[in-house]
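Retry 2 of 3 after timeout on previous attempt. Resubmitting C-alpha cells to design endpoint.
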C-alpha cells in the first residue's frame, strides 16, 4: 500500500489541482450548441463558465481553512463527493438557469481540489522545492487543456453536450474513490487550536511579498481566462473552426503552458522565484500586445490568435507555480488558508474580468485580444511596483530595528 501510494499520490494531486480546468475546458466546445439548445445568448451561456469560476474561488475560502483545522483528507473527500454529484445533475438540467445553478454547486465541490492539493505540497516541501514540485505538476496539468477540449469535442459530436457532464461526473467519482483509498493525512497541525481567523488573515496581508505574488498570479491568469471564455466564440463563431478543430487549437495554447512549466522546473531553482515571475510577466505582456495589435490591424486568423497565446501561456507557466510557492511557503500552520486566499483572488478576479470582457463582445477579436494584452501589462507593472514597495519597507524596518 505504501509503495502504491507513493506512486499514485502525485498523479492524483495533479489531477485534482486541474479539476477546475477540466470542468471548464472540456465543456468549451459545447458552448455554442448549448446556447442554441436553450435559446439563450452568448453572455448568458458564458455564465456557465464565469460563475463556475466564481464558485470555485469562493469554495476555496471554505475548504482551505477547514483543511487547516480538520485535516486535508476528510475535507478533500467531502469536496469530491459534492463535485461528482453536481456534475451528474448538470447533465439533466432542463433549463439554462438550473444548469447554471448546478454548475455553481459543482464548482463548490471542485474548489476543494486545488487548495488542498497545494496545501499538501506545502506540508511536504519547503518553498524552493515546492516551486519545483508545483511546476512539475503544472507540466502534467497542461495536458488537461490539451486533452479536455479534444475529448469534449468528440463526446459532443458523438453524444451531445449533455454527455460531457456525464463524463465529468464519472471523473469526479473516480477521483473520489482513488482519494479515499490512497490520500494520507499530511497536516500535522490538524486538530490544534487555531488562531482567530482575523488574526490569520492579517498575518497574510502583513507578509512582505504575499500581495505581490498573489497579484502576479491573478492578473496573468485573468488574461488566460479572458481567452478561455472568449475563445470558443472567437474561433468557432468568428473564424469558423469546427468543435474538434477548436480542441486542437486550444490544445496548442496549452502546450505553451506545459513548455513554460518545463522551463520553470529546469531553471527556476537557479534563477529564483522572483526572477521567474518577472520574466513570465514580461513574456505575457509582450505576447498580449502583439496579439491585440494584429487584431486591431484587421489581421484576424487562427494563427494570429493561437501563436501569441502560445507565448502568453508560456509566460504563465513561469508565473503560476513560483507565485503560489512564494505565497504559501512562509505559512506551514495555515497553508490551506494561504493557498485559499491566493486561489480566491486569482479566480474571482479572473471571473469578474471575463464577465466584463464578455459584455464588450462585438463580433470581432478586438475585445478578447485587448483584454489579454491589458492583463499581461498589468501583471508586469503591478508585480514590479508591489515587490519594490515591500523591499523598501523591509529595508526601512531593518534600519529602524
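Retry 2 succeeded. Sequence:
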Amino acid at each position: 500500500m505504501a509503495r502504491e501510494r507513493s506512486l499514485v499520490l502525485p498523479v492524483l494531486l495533479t489531477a485534482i489541482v486541474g479539476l477546475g480546468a477540466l470542468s471548464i475546458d472540456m465543456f468549451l466546445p459545447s458552448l455554442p450548441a448549448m446556447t442554441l439548445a436553450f435559446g439563450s445568448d452568448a453572455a448568458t451561456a458564458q455564465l456557465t463558465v464565469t460563475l463556475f469560476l466564481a464558485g470555485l474561488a469562493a469554495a476555496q475560502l471554505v475548504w482551505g481553512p477547514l483543511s487547516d483545522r480538520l485535516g486535508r483528507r476528510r475535507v478533500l473527500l467531502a469536496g469530491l463527493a459534492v463535485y461528482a454529484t453536481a456534475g451528474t445533475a448538470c447533465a439533466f438540467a432542463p433549463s439554462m438557469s438550473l444548469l447554471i445553478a448546478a454548475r455553481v454547486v459543482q464548482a463548490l465541490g471542485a474548489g476543494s481540489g486545488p487548495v488542498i492539493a497545494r496545501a499538501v505540497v506545502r506540508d511536504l516541501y519547503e518553498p524552493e522545492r515546492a516551486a519545483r514540485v508545483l511546476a512539475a505538476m503544472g507540466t502534467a496539468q497542461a495536458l488537461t487543456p490539451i486533452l479536455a477540449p479534444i475529448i469534449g469535442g468528440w463526446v459532443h459530436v458523438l453524444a451531445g453536450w449533455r454527455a460531457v457532464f456525464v463524463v465529468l461526473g464519472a471523473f469526479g467519482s473516480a477521483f473520489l474513490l482513488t482519494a479515499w483509498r490512497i490520500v494520507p493525512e499530511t497536516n500535522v497541525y490538524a486538530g490544534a487550536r487555531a488562531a482567530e481567523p482575523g488574526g490569520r488573515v492579517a498575518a497574510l496581508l502583513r507578509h512582505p511579498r504575499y500581495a505581490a505574488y498573489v497579484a502576479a498570479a491573478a492578473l496573468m491568469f485573468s488574461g488566460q481566462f479572458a481567452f478561455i471564455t472568449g475563445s470558443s466564440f472567437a474561433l468557432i463563431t468568428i473564424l469558423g473552426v469546427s468543435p474538434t478543430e477548436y480542441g486542437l487549437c486550444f490544445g496548442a495554447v496549452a502546450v505553451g503552458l506545459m513548455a513554460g512549466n518545463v522551463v520553470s522546473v529546469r531553471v527556476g531553482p537557479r534563477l529564483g522565484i522572483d526572477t521567474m515571475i518577472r520574466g513570465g510577466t514580461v513574456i505575457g505582456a509582450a505576447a498580449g500586445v502583439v496579439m491585440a495589435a494584429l487584431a486591431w490591424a484587421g489581421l484576424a486568423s487562427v494563427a494570429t490568435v493561437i501563436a501569441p497565446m502560445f507565448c502568453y501561456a508560456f509566460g504563465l507557466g513561469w508565473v503560476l507555480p513560483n507565485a503560489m510557492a512564494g505565497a504559501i511557503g512562509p505559512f506551514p500552520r495555515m497553508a490551506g488558508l494561504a493557498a485559499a486566499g491566493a486561489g480566491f483572488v486569482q479566480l474571482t478576479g479572473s471571473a469578474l474580468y471575463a464577465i466584463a470582457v464578455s459584455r464588450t463582445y462585438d463580433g470581432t477579436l478586438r475585445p478578447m485580444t485587448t483584454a489579454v494584452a491589458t492583463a499581461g501589462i498589468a501583471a508586469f507593472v503591478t508585480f514590479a511596483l508591489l515587490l519594490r514597495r515591500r523591499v523598501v519597507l523591509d529595508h526601512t524596518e531593518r534600519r529602524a530595528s
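Attempt log closed. The mean pLDDT is 81.
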